[in-house]
């Protein structure tokens, strides 16, 4: 039960920084060369919207977390993270990742 004991890994997407460039999606596919009918990492671009008079635009990523866990165990610096031009993705032990979301708009995926 990794979410309870803190022993799992987490993938963090900083919504404030992500520009929806599809780089992580391409990086994952480039790393593993899986067929085009598979999507281990998917970027979902969203339209801008206004919150309290401020324009925001939050894109999303959809990782297949079972793949990410194995990937991280093989390489703690996967290309999706190191290749993100906005430095919007982080991966690591859950207890190290969660504090990095403080004060930010983030999505955290656990595996
Ligand atoms: S997480 Fe990084 S690489 Fe992926 S879409 Fe956002 S900015 Fe691009
Ligand atoms: S952590 Fe590995 S498997 Fe997961 S999206 Fe990044 S490159 Fe793909």
Strand content bin: 25-35%
Oligomeric composition of the shown chains: single chain
Please indicate the count of domains: 1
Large-scale geometry:
globular
Number of helices: 5
Structure commentary:
The chain has 111 residues and is α+β, with helices and mostly antiparallel strands. 29% of the residues lie in helices and 27% in strands. The chain contains 5 helices and 7 strands; from the N terminus they run H-E-H-E-E-E-E-H-H-E-H-E. A 3-stranded antiparallel sheet has the order 6-1-7. It has a two-stranded antiparallel sheet with strand order 2-5. The mean pLDDT is 93. The structure holds iron/sulfur cluster (SF4) (2 copies). The site of one iron/sulfur cluster has 14 residues, from helix 2, helix 3 and helix 4.
Using brief descriptors, characterize the structure shown.
two-stranded antiparallel sheet, Alpha-Beta Plaits, alpha+beta, binds iron/sulfur cluster, 5 helices, three-stranded antiparallel beta sheet, 111 residues
